[in-house]
Design brief:
Blueprint: E1 2-9, H1 16-33, E2 37-43, E3 61-69, H2 76-83, E4 88-100, E5 113-119, H3 127-145, E6 150-159, E7 170-176, H4 184-187, H5 193-210, E8 217-225
Antiparallel strand pairs: 1-3, 1-4, 2-3, 2-8, 4-6, 5-7, 5-8, 6-7
Helix pairs in contact: 1-2, 3-5
Length: 227
């Protein structure tokens, strides 16, 4: 069983509710017909409109669909199901780990919001040190300085679609309370301006130890775990 992730790029003018409906009502049933299991949709819909994404891709990332297949080689029908709902589709085979489990109800929107971030390691950083900092040092900092309720690491094993961006090394899913969309104190779990600054500074210092900020981009999304 292998996990596949697809970034759905689309023009920012496309209504997020329209995109969500199309993916839920049309793409997901077709994915299941193609053998997809444990399907999860992340989409930039109206519920997360207050967020300010960091966009560098053109067109930007508007949704992400992940699922499991017995064999990634048999993904053709699944890719076809998604391609008709994207201006551009980028698929990846990933290795998943869940250091912080969050509650989800099958078929329903997960409470709060999810920040989906595409990350890359510093070019001169050794791979072993990159993973050590990310999974040990940075994990502790993230938990202590943010209001994170769920955390999923997806290390990119290889791209699956032609032209998929190759500058990223992982895709991270972080779940937060909905107030974190537009309130930095909620996001950084701070009760005062001083605590906000301290937590933000500590987080940025940690990120700069192992992440290349050039390719980094993130989008706030609603999560729908469809089982």
């Amino acid at each position: 069983m292998e996990k596949l992730m697809y970034l759905v790029f689309h023009e920012p003018e496309l209504d997020g509710e329209e995109l969500r409906t199309a993916l839920l009502d049309k793409a997901v049933p077709a994915l299941r017909d193609g053998g997809a299991q444990t399907v999860t949709l992340h989409v930039q819909d109206d519920a997360v409109a207050a967020g300010q994404p960091l966009r560098k891709s053109d067109p930007p990332v508007r949704a992400m669909v992940s699922f499991w297949l017995e064999n990634a080689d048999d993904r053709g029908a699944c890719e076809a199901a998604l391609a008709s709902h994207a201006s551009k589709l980028a698929g990846y085979l990933v290795a998943e780990s869940r250091p912080m489990i969050h509650e989800r109800s099958e078929g329903a929107r997960t409470p709060g919001m999810c920040q989906v971030t595409c990350i890359a390691k510093l070019p001169d950083l050794d791979w072993a040190e990159f993973y050590r900092i990310w999974t040990t040092d940075h994990k502790a900092v993230a938990v202590e300085t943010q209001s994170t309720t769920g955390y999923v690491r997806n290390v990119i094993v290889r791209p699956l679609t032609d032209g998929a961006p190759d500058q990223w090394h992982a895709i991270v899913e972080e779940t937060f309370p909905i107030g974190a969309l537009d309130d930095p104190k909620v996001f950084y779990d701070a009760s005062s301006d001083g605590e906000l600054k301290a937590n933000l500074d500590r987080m940025m210092t940690s990120c700069n130890r192992f992440l290349d900020m050039g390719p980094l981009e993130f989008t706030h999304m609603s999560e729908y775990w469809l089982g």
